[in-house]
Specification:
The protein is an alpha+beta fold. It has a single domain, classed as L,D-transpeptidase catalytic domain-like (Beta Barrel), CATH 2.40.440. The chain contains 5 helices and 15 strands. The strands form 3 sheets. Strands 1, 2, 3, 4, 5, 7, 8, 9, 10, 11 and 12 form an 11-stranded mixed sheet that branches. Strand 7 and strand 8 form a beta hairpin. Helix 4 crosses helix 5.
């Protein structure tokens, strides 16, 4: 995309966002739901409370509060041979400064040594990981390879979801000031912060509205077909790196 076209697109997004913010809260929620319905997205945004939607084909995470999208972040999802599963789950906790143990396939391939990686900015899980329901080894987390968010194609992980705006996501989940998130993430302790059971949908919607409200078609990166364009539980398995306790 040329620099001129980028400026035009940025101006368009700004105009749409300003107009969007001018609506009352209930109307703003209805506007986004209408966009989803127009795109044929079978997802009902909860009108009450918080919710998180991970849309795999668009490489995007959207966080909602009372039906209104309050955060949209680029993400990295599982590669086609290590798919991020499609399922409905919920947040259980946030681990600050996680340690990390690579899965057997990464060790066998020589990608990573068979050891526990210490907490800190060089950890593959980054400085924080949002944990989902107990027993589910799929996380929404930071990364030590943030430059990969600049790539257009971002199906690169072993199944977990790397979040570019991880700090804003953690602040959203915990209802915490972002400065406090940074303080804890750059501190000395590894610990779990209890979190409310915010519903999380990991879904595959090949048609999805962008930040400007335009309906965009995305590649079917897992070859699921339009019939599988749902948020229903997925039978596919994935192998992800585990948090080391």
């Amino acid at each position: 995309m040329s620099k001129r076209r980028k400026w035009i697109f940025a101006a368009l997004v700004l105009v749409v966002l300003l107009a969007f913010c001018a609506f009352p809260a209930t109307t703003r929620a209805e506007v986004f739901q209408t966009q989803l319905d127009k795109a044929g997205v079978p997802y009902q945004v909860p009108a009450v409370g918080k919710a998180i939607l991970v849309n795999i084909p668009s490489f995007e995470l959207v966080a909602f509060d009372k039906g209104i999208p309050v955060l949209r972040s680029r993400i990295i999802v599982g590669a086609p041979w290590h798919r991020t599963p499609r399922l409905n789950t919920y947040v259980s906790s946030v681990r600050f400064r996680p340690t990390w143990r690579p899965p057997p396939s990464m060790i066998a391939s020589g990608e990573y040594a068979n050891r526990v990686w210490p907490a800190g900015p060089n950890n593959p899980l980054g400085l924080a990981a949002v944990r989902l329901q107990p027993g589910l080894l799929v996380y929404l987390h930071d990364t030590n390879n943030r430059e990969k968010f600049d790539q257009e194609y971002r199906a690169l992980s072993h199944g977990c979801v790397r979040v570019q705006q991880w700090d804003r996501l953690v602040a959203f989940v915990l209802g915490m000031d972002i400065a406090e998130v940074h303080r804890l993430a750059n501190g000395r302790r590894t610990f779990d912060a209890p979190a409310p059971p915010i519903p999380v949908g990991l879904a595959s919607f090949t048609r999805f509205p962008n930040a400007a409200g335009q309906i965009v078609d995305h590649p079917d990166i897992y070859g699921l077909g339009r019939a599988m364009n749902t948020a229903l539980p997925d039978a596919a398995t994935c192998e992800v790196a585990d948090l080391a306790d």
